[in-house]
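So, who can interpret the following?
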Amino acid sequence: MDQIFSYEVADALTRQNGSEFRSQAEQFRELMMMYSCAIKEVRTKIEVLSEEFQVKSQRNPIGTIKSRIKQPMSIFEKAKRKGYELTFESIKENMNDIAGIRVICPFIEDIYAVAEMLTNQDDIRMIQVKDYIQHPKDNGYRSLHIVVEVPIFLSDRKEYMKVEVQIRTIAMDFWASLEHQIHYKKYTDNEDEAIVKELKECADTIYETDKKMESIRRKLDYVEDINHII
């Protein structure tokens, strides 16, 4: 973690004497460690659910699981942009997306099933839900975002840490990944509006495909159930 303390971060953290900076730096390292532990806790819970489905069910609603911790400079840039104090306590209290997990599911209904199974666990606290599937962003982005708090047990205390869990289908992730790359290209203002329109059209087409694939799966499940009865 030593590389995170660039001159920009050091200046953002404090303009005071060296001992105070060292205290801030140590607190930040501890905070990042706690977010890392929180990701492990939530990821393990999702992996346990996945293993259970592999044993008990013919179909697993959990595909791939990815995790990340927000880069330090991104944390401080966002804190500064939002007007938050650049302190251990303020960052922990105000920022929900430092620790993130992405779960990729085969079908739309799997997204809500996985979210319910995770948040029903008695040591998970639900903090926030943003349903961009039912209410997509202007550019067409779709995903279910939930912020949860999970306890981590340190040597001298228990801390509740926030983790943002994004749950989406394979198709939604495909669109989001390509949009992320396109987002960094430079366009004129006139081009921006047309590009956003095209991105939304692609997202809508992908969503309709998601719904059709789910409908096909349900029909096949129904036929299989009938055959078992017969």
Q: What stands out?
A: Confidence is low (pLDDT under 50) at residues 1-7. Strands lie at 65-69, 99-105, 125-131, 144-153, 158-169. Helices lie at 7-13, 18-56, 72-82, 88-94, 108-119, 170-183, 189-229. The radius of gyration is 21 Å.
